[in-house]
Amino acid sequence: MSLEKNSAGSAPLSLSGDLSSALSAKEDIRNRIEDRKLAVFLDYDGTLTPIVERPELAVLSDEMRKTLKDLSSLCLVGILSGRGLEDVKNLVNLDNLLYSGSHGFEIAPYGHREFSQTKGEPFLPALDLAEETLNKALKPIQGTFLERKKYSIAVHFRQVADREIHKVEEHVDAVMAQQNLLHKSVGKKVFDLKPAVDWNKGTALGWILEKLEMDRPNVLAIYIGDDTTDEDAFREMARMGGIGILVRDPLSRPTHARFALDSTDDVRFFLEFLIAATRKKLAG
Predict the structure, then answer these.
(1) pLDDT in tens, 38-88
(2) Would you tell me how many other CB atoms lie within 10 Å of the CB of residue 213?
(3) CB neighbours of residue 159 within 10 Å
(4) How far apart are CA 146 and CA 153, in angstroms?
(5) 214 vs 85: CA distance, rounded Å
(6) Domains of the chain, with CATH numbers?
(7) In the prediction, which pLDDT does 11 show?
(8) Is 43 a catalytic residue?
């Protein structure tokens, strides 16, 4: 199987259940690493840690942290999360990584590089108002949890009774109907409200690589994520000739990813393969 960018420069939709495992494509990926620099980007929840009942319970394991640390000593490693920037930085707690939060709207400095983009700033008043309204509206619905990040709002309903979920979405939609400045997306048991602007994990990823002068043919970029918000990054990977890898659920769904992994343990095994392959290349 060829891993080069297709002629259209975009990833066709596939069913996640039909994707080959990235662990079965080691030799092809090893061959591409051989003459390229490597850049690896990952989501946090559902990718580095299993999905849990509440966001604060998603704690990075010591084994995964060591794997990330080892990989970051060999290549660029970035975390692109829907969480707030400081939240995800504190959870990973490694200095040598690039961090982006709020679905790409917050980007921390990396090395001596500052990533100054202010696309989310004009939407702060709308987010503040939506937060205030939803806090009041959702209070009577048991199990809801509203998580405010600087440039987005996550309305979690994982612990809401099935018969009540439609009420959560009705309140979210009512807030959306009162303004046109925010966009709603649906993830794993969560409604995300983000600025209605052409900026997402995919555009942020492409912008970061451009700023680092790594949007080049001699760079192999890999993005690993598990949720629908990661699809923009998978499309960006295909556009630039990188590799998108979905951490899939048992329930198959359409995706722009090229390969799949079946668990966070598989993610760690794949990262350890990248470490070994890169070390072998550098050793000559």
Answers:
(1) 999 999 999 999 988 888 889 999 999 999 999 999 999 999 999 999 999
(2) 8
(3) 12
(4) 7
(5) 22
(6) 16-118+199-283 (3.40.50.1000), 121-195 (3.30.70.1020)
(7) 62
(8) yes
